[in-house]
Structure formats: C-alpha cells, structure tokens
Amino acid sequence: MAATLPAAGPAAAADPQRLTVDLSSSEGPVMLGANGALYGLSDDGVPSDAALEPLKVTSISQKPEGGAQHPNGDALTVSKSFFRNGGGEINVMMQDIYAKWPYEDLGIDDYLPKVDKIAKEVAADPNSEWFVYIPFNEPDQIWYKLGVADQAQYEANRDRFFKDWKTVYQRIRAIDPDARIAGPNEAAYHSRLLKDFLAFAKRENVLPQVMTWHELGSGSLRDFQAHYDDYRGLEREAGIAPLKINIDEYANRRDLSVPGQLVQWVSMFERNKVYANMAYWDAAGNLSGHVVRSNIPNGGWWLFRWYAGMTGDTVEVTPPQPNTIDTLQGLASLDTSRRQAQVLLGGSAGDSDVVVRGVDRSLFGRTVTATVAEAAWSGYEGQHATPRVLARTKVKVADDGSVTVPLRGMHKMSAYRIVLTPGGTGTPSPATVPWSASYEAESAAITDGKVYTQGTVENANGYAASGTKDVGSLNQATSKVDFTVTVPREGSYDLAILYGNQSGTPATQKLSVDGGAPVTVTYPSTENWTYRAKKDVTLRLSEGTHVLTLAKGDAEVTLDRVDLTARTGAAAASYEATLADISGKPSYDYASSAGVGTGSLVLRSGDKAVFDVYAPRDGYYTVVPRASAPVRLALHGETVTAAPGRALRLYLVAGNNRLAVTAGHASVRSLDVSGDGSTSGMLSYEAASATLAGGAELVDSAYASTGSYIGKLGNGPSSTAEFTVRAPSSGRYVLVVHYAHNDRRDNGHAYNTDIMSRTADITVGNAEPVKVTFKNTWSADDYWTLGVPVELKKGANHVTFGNATAWAPHIDRIELGRVVDRP
Predict the structure, then answer these.
(1) Nearest-angstrom CA–CA distance, 388 and 33
(2) Dist CA 105 CA 110 (whole Å)
C-alpha cells in the first residue's frame, strides 16, 4: 500500500474521507482500558512475559482456581505472570467453577459452598485487592432468563435473581469485607433490568463496585454509545455516583486479530473511559487471538502495542461516520511533557485525510515530523514483523494550527499509526517501502476447490478472512489454485501465504512457477481450517507476469490470500527511542529530526528505555544503538556495553524480545536491528544424544528433525533426559527447546478449544530446577521452539529435563546460543 504525506500531484479520483483530531480538546488521561481479554492467559508463561508486558493490560477475566469450566486459566495461577508483567486487575468468573455450558442450574444452595471456597482462596492471596468477584455470568440468559418479553414473567425471574444477588454479595463480603464485586454482567445491554437493578442494589446496600455487561454483536459498534449514555442516565436518575464500567466481553471472531476491526472497538471504549475485555471464542492463553504460539506478535498484537504506547491525554476525534459499523474510526493522544501526538485509525479501505487541529506551535514549533506506519492483518496464528514505516516527512504547521496527513490506498483490515513530533532541524530519513501486491485465493483460478464466505457482518462469529472469502475443500489429487501475478523487475520476492491446516499433521502443497519444477511448501497445523496462519517462502522471479501454482501435496490446507513483496535484503528495522517504554525521568530532544525523525531520548543515571524488538526466528541478529555516548544493553539477563554505532551480535528468540537500554548520559536516537536469524556458532544436540532414564525413550517420527524424539518423559521423578552440552566459554546462553505435544480436554463446548499446556523442570548442572511451560502445538507432529535463558560454564554442562508429577513435552532437539556473541 502507499501512504503519502503532503506533496504536489494530481487530485484523487474521489474525495478522501476525513478524520479530524483536535489536540486542544482533552478527554482525560489515557486509560488503556480496552486491552483486556477473557481467558487471555492460560498458564504461568502462556503467553510469554515478553509478549504480555509491553501491552500494559489493565484487566483480564479468568476462572476461579480449580474451576471445571476449562482445563486452565485459573485466576490465582495466572496472576503470578500477570502481576509480574504490570497487569492491572483480575475478574474472577465465579460461575466458571461449574463444568457445563450453559452452567448447570443446581440451585443457590449448591452454589453457595462454591462461593465460600472461591472467596476464601482469593481473600487469602497476597494480591487480593487486585481481584474483582463476578458472581453471575450472563444471568439474562443463564439460570434467570431476565430478557423475557412477558412483564410478569420478567418480574418473577428478576425477583429471584435479585434475591440470589443479595445472598451471594453478602456471602462474599462476610468472607472478604474489602471485596470488590462486579455485575450484573448481562450477555447484552438491558435498560429495563439495569434500571430495576440499580434501584434494588442501592436500597439493599448491595451495589456493585464495577458495572459489567457484554457487547458481543457486530451491532455493538453502532449501539454501544447509546447503551453507555443510557446507563449513565440511569445512574443519575437513581442518585448513584458513576460506577467504574468493564465491558468484560466484547468483539466477535471476525474482529479478533484484525487491526482494522479492533481499532473501531478500542476507540469507542477509550473515548468513554471504560474498561473492556475481548471475548474468549477459541483457545485460552493468546490474549484473545493476538499472540502467536507463546511469544510471537500478529497484526492485532501490534495494534495493542501501539495503544499501550499512547501517553498523556486522549483528545477528541471526529470520524467520517460516528457509531457506524465497519467504518473509519480512530483515537488520538497528546502528551505535552513528551511533545508527542499519536493517532491510531483504521477500519476502512481507500483514501483518507487525517486533519490534526490544535497543533500548538509553542509545543511543536513551526514544523512537525509525521511518521506513518501500518499494522496489517496477518491472521490469528500468523507472525507479523515490526510494522513498516510507510512515510516519514517534515510538514509545516498551517497558520490555523493544523496539519493534514494524507493516507492513500488504505487496507480495510489494517490499522495505522501517525506520530507527530517537533520538526527541529535536519531531514528525516525517507521511508523505504518495497513493492508489494496481494492476490485473493477466491479470485484466482481454482481447480477442484470451493470458495467459502467467512466473517461477514451477518456472520460476525465466523472467522476473519481477507475479502470475507477463502478457498477450501482442496482435498482432491488434482486440487490447485493458480495465482497470476505481475512483478516490476527481476529479483527475489517474499511470498506470504495465508492458510489454514486442520489435518492433524503438517500439510504440504507443491509450489511451482509457470509450470516449472515444483518445490514443497510445508504448513504447520492450525487450530482449524479457518484459524488463519502465515507461511513465508522466498522466490526468484523475472520481470513480468507469472503463474504461481499451489497444488495439493500431503494432507490438506485452505488458502485465503497470498502477498508478494520485493525482497530488498535481510530484514531490518529502526526502533525509535522516543517511542520506547521508559522508567526514570529521561528527557526528549527534538532539536534534530535526522534519522528516524522522532528526535532523541536523553538517558541519564537511573533512566531506562525498553525496546520491543521482533525476530522472525531464533538466532543471531545485528543490533546497533544510535547514541551519542556508550550505552548498556540488557537482554535475557545479560548486560553488554556498546559504543555509539557499534554493531553487536545478539541472540534473539522468535517473536518479541525486550531490550533495555541504560546510560550514564547519552542521547539515543534509535536501536537498529537487522538480520534473518543466523545460526552460525550455535550448539545443537539431537534427541538421540541425550541420556534417558526412568522410562523416557526415543520414539520414531517422520516429523522429527532426525527421525526421532524423546517421548514418555516425566510423569515420575526418575523419568529424565540429560543432555551433555559443551560450552566454548562461560556465560549467559539461550537454551532453545524444539518440542511438541497436543494435550487437550474437551468439555463439550460449542466454540472453545480446550488445549492444555505441559511443563518441564529444567536443571543446568547443580542449579535449582526451573519450571517452564510449553503451550500446545496443535498437533503432536508440529515442533515449536521455546527459548529459556541459562547460565553455562566453560566445558561440559549437564542439562536435564524432567517432570515428577505429569508428562513433559516431546523433545526433538535443543540448541544453545550465547546471548552476546563476543569475538
């Protein structure tokens, strides 16, 4: 796509949409309320700390400890990782103590002992003040049927619910006097019920501390504002001070993972300063569809990372069509202390002008640098590299205090970020955007396949698909899809294939160019046929038109879209220091807009900047700090000093890596990272090299790297696998475990996939064992990686895997890389 900033040229064929931002009209401090998730965490370590911490999640909803509704996601268990990563509060979905869905109605007398147990456990937790009790879930549908039309029946059901609400409320408070309680927590907004509920709860002194209901329809993008306004009116009528609101389930499947959809929801919740948690439609532990595997960002993750980076106050945004489904929407912030304005927008294809008013010259000067980046849709399970900067330009502030940023050729499923910073002197480095084109599978030539419609407004809980269509049933020997593509010049091209694979094993297709010799493309498993992932392949193409054929191989896949992008060398990204997470009191210097254009962050003793750095795979990358003086970089528990501009060879794990930068006194412009993940200099040990004991054994597998993996590991203290690794020097290493497992517990839910994690205790030498969590890999034949920092001494080290109480994952092989590759 092309995004352009002010420049002379022919007028667009149609008038662009206009989204207006008024920096002079504050809505109050940025709250980050809309980034929560129901069952967003499944286990301690799923998602990883590096994927969780950057999002600054303000609330999550989880089941009570030992709840039978799902096999994991227990509130007290996941609270450890949630709180150590700066999480806000945890809603305890108390009725998830039950196994059935909808919850079996065994009467209030059956429920009360369960309430007692939950309240006692939460009250005893050292972080009890950060938990919120939700006694009932969707009572308008479950147990009480509060949405019935017949008034007499409604009143009978209502009175029974109110009686039970009071009983449970008082029961919780008797055990935990300081408890915060939320409700009534309807499946949809009901003005009639809430009016009655507020009057009853005020009269009986059982008013919730948090008001909750769900917004789970595509119509919510249109209707929520009216719901919110109506509810605040009911409070005023009842003489109740405004309660904190948590929309503790929101969005449909078609919204989750899609930046252009999510920005519409986030903007309306943040504008109204309510908290909100995304719904749990699929599997736990991926923040409602935004973390790939355990540590890899997708496009939705980057949207929430941008959201987490907004500081200061939100300001008024006027979209072309307020409160309208699937239209251009946005949110914006102004931080006067940092002299930054940010705009997040998306939800519509085509052209748009973003008009930013109230740009104070005393704050920004006569020019600003406008930096535009795109977070694209990469699927639920598709990796997304650091969002590409599309434009980086210095713009003059108009006499009326406005700046206009044109966006051209926007993608409906993408979100965009605009950052405005003082222009200063100098010229920003122009953005380099490689040629790229997208091709829908449903528009290609299809042989023995079928086009399916997915994720429309009418079928909001269908899975998202590019263009709302994909191609499936490619299960015949002759099944294939021919894409006709045209490239501007000879060279290497990256082909990204959005696919699904529910076959139960890795699946393959045969990829050929213009009928030439085919190569095999292997697709890892996904949750289902429409839970989209992304496979990257590199091709060499001559200038002109070609036919790319994807023909059936082993098993079956579905195809959604392919993206073809000119390859310009090893992947590279510059991470702006002024947009990093900070602690201490660093200052912001915009005297020069050279380089990344957003100025410099001045670090002094006690200050720290943390960068979120993406790696496409485990391996070594070149990291260069652009700084005025030496800085210290901390990664995976190791710290290294770097001179200005000095290239370091650092080991990054696949997905997100948090690099912390400190200095005695240095002006830092950016952290520049490049490379494709070199494995040169790494240590590698196959399963067959391990010493096995206590029943652990080598198991033959065509999918393991050398034909076998370690199985039957754990489930007893004597079952272990010990690797002897030989380190060339002492120091900090990353132990990368290649593993697989497919543990599940099917509770019979209509839409949740109850996958389970396994753990392994890893012991290095005489050190204390470390318990590590390994997420389900969707099939027992798909091997993922998990990186664990360890200390090794020079020479032989014994690395032992075990699990005394449960099965450990299958282990294919291990690799080790020194965190800092010193010459």
Answers:
(1) 26
(2) 9
